Amino acid sequence: MLKKIPAILPPELVKIMMEMGHGDELVLGDAHFPAASNAARLVRCDGHPIPVLLEAILELFPLDPYVERSVGLMQVIPGDPVMPHIWNTYRQVVDASGNDQPFEFIERFAFYERARRSYAIVATGELSQYANVILKKGLVL
């Protein structure tokens, strides 16, 4: 154990976040996301909801302040009546981390393509629809 590292973060994820450089992206995939088939590096956090993981990650992970949007969400498919209320929770968590940039909304298949190019994908137990998140790493200032 180490001090000040949230216990919910597995050692593999902490190691991956340490390896990542400025501009690298980390994907948090909901339970519906095809994480294993898209990941170059896969971390399993099954059973954990994304908001709790997001809060823990952002204690250690600086978001990129040099881009217009350092947090991306999978946009709702046109015509789908789903209202992703979890996005409000994400907004609160991200704001609390000191980042008030607007979110980027990414079309579903563009999101999958970007996830394939990401540094790593975290597979979670989040059951909300459209709960997938991309985080762009910044600098520790």
If you had to describe this structure to a student in words, what would you say it looks like?
It is a single chain. The protein has 141 residues and is of the alpha/beta class. The chain has a single domain (22-136), classed as 3-Layer(aba) Sandwich (RbsD-like fold), CATH 3.40.1650.10. It contains five helices and six strands. The chain has helices at 11-19, 35-38, 50-58, 86-96, 108-117, and strands at 25-29, 42-45, 71-74, 104-106, 120-124, 133-136. The chain has a six-stranded mixed β-sheet with strand order 2-5-1-6-3-4. Strand 3 (71-74), helix 4 and strand 4 form a beta-alpha-beta unit. Helix 3 packs parallel to helix 4 (86-96).
Identify the notable features of this structure and list them briefly.
141 residues, alpha/beta, RbsD-like fold, six-stranded mixed β-sheet, 5 helices
The fold-level CATH name is RbsD-like fold
- The share of residues in helices is 25-40%
Share of β-strand residues: 15-25%
CATH architecture label: 3-Layer(aba) Sandwich
Distinct helical segment count: 5
- The CATH C-level class name: Alpha Beta
Name the CATH superfamily classification: RbsD-like domain
- Structural class, from secondary structure content? alpha/beta
Q: How much is the average pLDDT?
A: 97
What overall geometry do the principal axes of the alpha carbons give? globular
Number of strands: 6
- Largest sheet, order of strands side by side? 2-5-1-6-3-4
Order of helices and strands: HEHEHEHEHEE
From the N-terminal CA to the C-terminal CA, the straight-line distance is 26 Å
Radius of gyration: 14 Å
Major sheet characteristics: 6 strands, mixed
Q: In total, how many domains does the architecture comprise? A: 1
Unreliable stretches, pLDDT < 50, 5 or more residues? none
